[in-house]
# Entry
Amino acid sequence: MTAFSFILFIQRFAYISVSKQYDGVNLEKRTKAKYEKVTKVNAKRGDILDVNGDMIAGDSTIYNIYAIVNHKSKTATGKADYVVDKEKTARMLSKYLPLSEKQLIKYLTPQNKKQYQVEFGQSGRNLSIEIKRKIAAQKLPGIHFVEFPSRSYPSGVFATNLVGITKADNANDQNSNISGVMGIEKYFNKLLSGQDGKKITKVDFNGNELPNSQVNEKQSIDGSNVYLTLNSKIQQYAEILAQDISDKYEPKNLQILVMNAKTGAIEAATQRPTFNPTTGKGLANSWRDTLVEDQFEPGSVMKILTLSASIDSGNYDPDELYKSGSVEVGGRTISDWNNAGWGYIPLSEAFPRSSNVGMVKLEQRMGSKTWMKYMRRFDIGTKTNIPLPGEVAGGISFQHTSDQAMTSFGQSVNVNTIQMLQAFSAIANDGKMIKPQIVQKVVNANTGKTTQSFKRQVVGQPIKKSTAKQVQKAMRQVVTKNYGTGLVYNIPGIKVGVKTGTAQIASPNGGYLTGNNNYIFSVAGMIPYNDPNYIVYITMRQPQKMTESPEKILSEVFNPLVKRLVNQGKSQTNSTQAGNQYVEVPSLLDKSTNDSLSKISNLKLQSGVIGTGNKVVQQLPASGEKVMPGQRMVLLTNGAMTMPDLTGWSKNDVLKFAEITGKQVTTKGDGYVVKQSVSSGHVINDSGKIIVTLKNK
# Structure
């Protein structure tokens, strides 16, 4: 029996030796896995840059801070690796984290004796490299950091919803990849991500890497770089103007677009509400790119297309008289914005007066089939296929006679903003319709070669050259005729042509909303009108503080923006020194407070200092951002966090103060600060809510 068992054992052993299998387990693979360590090598995510190569989004690293509170923890040299002095640790951390000493001591006090480490909630996450270095320099026992891959947006709020943001695939994994979840980051995610590599090393029984062990490595392939058509000089200015309007009039939505009329390159695109891609502030109210993801009734800017179709189809008689005021169509009364009308007027005045009745007459004269044919030629109801995710196609309501008539003045038809910009391009380019472009090129980061290039693309010719010229002249009359609706847009020395728009907003209960601010107000402009270099399109929905006429409000964006465009030259390739009108914010971190204040003054900027320290530990705006002269830089120093004198600060300045301190600040009124609930010099760590009162000068 013993001999038989021995024979069976030998046979079993031989089988295992040859097959390397035992109970279905591959022993060779199992051993290999046990003594080999496979590590993922993350590919560098590609950069997103503007047309001149300035960084918009790039690879970065963020840090989470934690504290070891278990007294058994030691360093490799036997020193204490836990929080030895809670009070000192809390005092030092309060200089860099938006938490008071009292709050920090509470965090540093473990709930039970077995607790090994503590974190500091949201206030201890997503720290920058600057803050991490500052804290690490204090050499506080027990304070450690976890490093995570991240994305840096050095320009702050900069076409944010269009550029997009990323998120970690696994927020708790240090080796996690990040993926785009909005805008360009999402659309080009695969190209930007590249391909991860891997590293295989030999390890001992305990998992430690063996010295001089063989390393088999699969190289990672870095992601491609995406160059946008955005021009930082124009984009930054558009952001400043947008924020001013948003603060003063509080529209529910605001969009500003600037397109190179010759090439279709979008040089600026912004919206409000928006969010800060670094802090995430405002993200909950702005989780989409409204430029392509929202559809709306465009209102009277649609009359540009109606007039074009009427002229091009041979149905336009400028001298024909019609009775303005109102008209019955399909059992529905359609009225002019001036309900009384202007009596009998020629059709040539319908466009500059923005007469709905006049446009209905044009639609009826050419017929609904012809009008629909031209709307299709202008690609209304069709996606532009611009490389941005989530574009909506819009649509045309054309079932009833009244709907057909209403499309002539921009109701009963839904569009997106980029779609309208494309349609306007036909007027600017002798009838040729140019596709809007947001991406200039894609470059392989490993070879430096351009793999994709986006050039001027004609997508159709809905109208003749002669028609385009007539419509250009009509747009000029909107700002030059004494009865034009766009007189406020007449800029001395600049030949501007525009069309104004006021669109009703559909009510969820049927019909349209009522009230003088429940509209989408807009202006579409060509600069210069007779040979456009630029198309500017601005829309504003439901301003909550309509203290000025809608035309006046929009002119506060349109007019200075147009002046800036003209002053900087005809295109981004031959722009003048317009960039000198901006100030690029330097890095003042670690600099002395006095030297920083001198530098800010020399840059023709205002300053505000929080704290009593002699060194700067945080700043807003961040280094690399571009601001207009006269803007305020807010500095946080390494001393006790004390309240500055906010007298004369703007609301934007107060928001910077709130962001850099992490304090709850409530503002009352508009204009500039005249009163603050916490007096200057007071330590604000435990001050609670701060109330700031503003008044217009």
In short: Residues 570-580 have pLDDT under 50 and may be disordered. The first strand starts at residue 21 and ends at 22. The radius of gyration is 32 Å.
